[in-house]
Every structure is written in structure tokens, then in C-alpha cells.
Amino acid sequence: MASLNKITLIGNVGSDPEMRYTPNGKAVTSFSLATNRRYTTTAGETKEETDWFRVSAWGKQAEQCNQFLSKGRQVYVEGRLHARSWEGQDGQTRTSLEVTADRVLFLGKRTTAALSEEGELEPEDLPFD
Fold this sequence. Notes:
CATH 2.40.50.140; 7 strands; about 55% strand; globular; 1 helix
């Protein structure tokens, strides 16, 4: 039986990206991403809630994210969701959901550019014909 693990997010970068290299020299960039949801309660009150995601990009895409993303920048992320567990200082097991990016599209005022996992621009990603 087939399965699918895919997540699509549009939000704002929460902090400047952090790039590092694995021992075998592969680049990885991590950044936080905030998504907002506005809704109206049954009492007519408008509420807003924010969800935070940790995003990791690899290879050439990681280098591009590190170069072009900054805190506050709007970004589209497509990837897979996975759980990471660790033991906190209090001895309790903690779990967080993280996104491994397959595709990142830089949105907002600067030039729009899309990167696939290989870091290549694709013709359909260009903002003109």
C-alpha cells in the first residue's frame, strides 16, 4: 500500500537562518517558520493563532536559503514532516515536528525564486513567460 508524507506551508521566517555543514561536507540550513490563522469565535471575537515549524533545507538549496532568507521574509515551503525526540534537562522526553524541505519558494518584495531539492530553478517557477 502506498503512503504519503507531504506538507505545504506559507509563512514568515522567524529568525535568520543558520547554516552548517555535516562531517562529509553537505550544507544544511535551519530556520523557524511562523504561520498565522485568523478566525472569529461564536461570540464574534476575532482571534489569531500562530503555529511554529522548524525547517531544514539541504545541499545547494540550503546555501540559497542561507543567502536569501532573513527574519520576517515570507516563504513557501514544501516538504515532509517528521518527529524528532530528545530528552530535556528535566529528564522528560520531548518531541517536536520538523519539516525537511524539498522545495522552497522565496516570496515577498525581493525577486521571486524557487529552488527544488537539487537547487535548480524550474521554468514554471519563473514569475514571467
